[in-house]
Inverse folding.
């Protein structure tokens, strides 16, 4: 079984061995994050509204950018989990934006809040806690919603719809929070000065557990950065739960952690794409090298092809030249042999007579081989010429069959012409080559049949009425399925005991197939061993003679 190709995320995760244990990493971040909390626990530092507002507005901006970056990952890869993670950061960043506006002193008078009024102590923490709670709740629900919604078919539409629903719900909840009496968020005399913030820390901690389980099921590089962001947000909420008044040290530390929590996924997104760009550049360089190698291979292949073509042309020229040279002395030998055979048996010794018949028979066989080689060389050289004329295919087939009847009679075979369909089948073709094809097919059928019959059926093709069909059927030795693929290859004969006893050049069917192809026709074979074979030739009819006329209804 082939090994599964690793994804880019798999490679990035495996390249960083210490990231393969994100739980240890995130736990370390939480521990390190509490060092400033311990240092500033009894510190008398107190900030102001403007510093707090600047931290909130910077965090809101970074959070929005991080959220949109994470959503773009869903849009590109179709992993809906990142749609909800991105929306969680955008919702929190939007709440932080409102929270930051309320923190500016100039905003207090615009919205009717006195700087020392009791409502200020409720609205500012209220917007902060609302954003953190929504962040944790959406993160917890994200894997559940992702699994229930199935595969994403339209990321663009889904992004718009889900985002609008989520943001509308957020606005409604925030507006509702401003219309009801808000509880006290700060209890300065208690160890946990902000219980609601401690509760939001628990919610964010639960979100971390949920997403760590998701990561364990399917490790992903970006999810590691999300886990780190959640762990820092958890630390920030714990720090905020210790803040006993607005703008104290724990208060500002918590906001700095929130800023770091927004930065983590954005930093991971940037590093991820830097690695992707490097991988793309490395792949691009490899492709360039591969392209150069392929180009060199192509040029080498073209050079070899040219050499092979030149060698083929040289071979074809040699075969054609030698075939012509062989024909002259062979025709002379056959001519003298025929003249000697015309003498009576009284004039020639019987032993010499048998030798003459053997010379004549083998000479004819050698001449056929020479003709086949000459035809094949012309075909391979692309110099085969077709001299077409209009003639009756049935008449030619009957003439060929009649000339081969003595050969069939000597073997005790019955040669049958099945003349069906129209009385004539006119075609526009090379008469000599069509006659040669029919001679090859019928003589082969007689040659490989020891008993029974050979039939030639002439008709219009049942599948394509624009073509004539010639079926040459014998009751001979048949052809094995494995041997049928060799029939139309040069110098191949049947791999059987009977086939090896019959002389053949192995070129007759090759040349015949090329001749029929040159007339836009086909030769096919159907055969069963020990039962016989059927060779079917289809060749286009003369269209002027056999143009199908439409009926009056069709013409209308």
């Amino acid at each position: 079984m082939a090994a599964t190709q690793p994804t880019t995320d798999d490679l990035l995760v495996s390249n960083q061995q210490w990231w393969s244990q994100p739980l240890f990493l995130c736990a370390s971040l939480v521990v390190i994050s509490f060092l400033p909390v311990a240092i500033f626990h009894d510190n008398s530092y107190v900030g102001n509204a403007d510093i707090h507002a600047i931290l909130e507005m910077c965090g809101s901006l970074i959070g929005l950018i991080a959220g949109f970056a994470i959503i773009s990952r869903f849009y590109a890869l179709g992993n809906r989990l990142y749609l909800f993670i991105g929306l969680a950061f955008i919702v929190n960043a939007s709440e932080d934006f409102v929270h930051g506006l309320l923190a500016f002193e100039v905003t207090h008078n615009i919205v009717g809040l006195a700087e020392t009024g009791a409502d200020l102590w409720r609205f500012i923490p209220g917007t902060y806690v609302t954003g953190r709670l929504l962040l944790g709740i959406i993160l917890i629900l994200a894997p559940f919603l992702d699994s229930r919604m199935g595969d994403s078919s339209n990321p663009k539409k889904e992004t718009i719809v889900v985002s609008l629903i989520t943001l509308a719900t957020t606005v409604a909840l925030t507006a509702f929070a401003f219309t009801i009496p808000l509880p006290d968020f700060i209890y300065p005399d208690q160890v946990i000065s902000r219980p609601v913030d401690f509760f939001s820390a628990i919610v964010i901690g639960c979100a971390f557990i949920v997403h760590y389980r998701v990561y364990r099921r399917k490790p992903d590089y970006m999810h590691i950065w999300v886990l780190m962001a959640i762990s820092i947000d958890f630390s920030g909420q714990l720090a905020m739960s210790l803040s006993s008044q607005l703008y104290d040290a724990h208060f500002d530390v918590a906001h700095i952690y929130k800023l770091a929590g927004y930065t983590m996924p954005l930093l991971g997104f940037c590093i991820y794409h830097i690695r992707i760009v490097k991988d793309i550049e490395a792949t691009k360089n490899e492709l360039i090298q591969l392209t150069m190698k392929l180009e060199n291979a192509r040029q080498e292949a073209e050079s070899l092809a040219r050499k092979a073509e030149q060698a083929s042309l040289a071979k074809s020229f040699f075969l054609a030249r030698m075939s012509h040279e062989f024909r002259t002395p062979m025709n002379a030998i056959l001519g003298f042999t025929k003249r000697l055979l015309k003498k009576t048996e009284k004039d020639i010794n019987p032993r010499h007579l048998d030798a003459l018949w053997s010379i004549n028979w083998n000479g004819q066989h050698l001449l056929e081989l020479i003709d086949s080689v000459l035809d094949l060389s012309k075909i391979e050289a692309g110099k085969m010429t077709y001299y077409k004329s209009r003639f009756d295919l049935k008449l030619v087939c009957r003439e060929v069959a009649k000339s081969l009847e003595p050969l069939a009679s000597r073997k005790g075979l019955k040669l049958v012409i099945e003349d069906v369909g129209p009385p004539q089948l006119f075609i526009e073709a090379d008469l000599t080559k069509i006659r040669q094809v029919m001679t090859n097919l019928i003589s082969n059928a007689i040659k490989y049949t020891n008993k029974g019959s050979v039939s030639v059926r002439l008709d219009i093709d049942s599948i394509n009425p624009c073509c004539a069909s010639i079926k040459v059927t014998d009751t001979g030795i048949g052809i094995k399925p494995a041997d049928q693929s060799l029939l139309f290859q040069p110098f191949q004969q049947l791999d059987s005991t009977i086939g090896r006893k019959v002389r053949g050049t192995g070129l007759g069917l090759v040349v015949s197939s090329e001749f029929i192809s040159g007339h836009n026709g086909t030769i096919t074979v159907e055969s069963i061993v020990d039962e016989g074979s059927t060779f079917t030739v289809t060749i286009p009819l003369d269209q002027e003679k056999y143009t199908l006329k439409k009926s009056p209804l069709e013409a209308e």
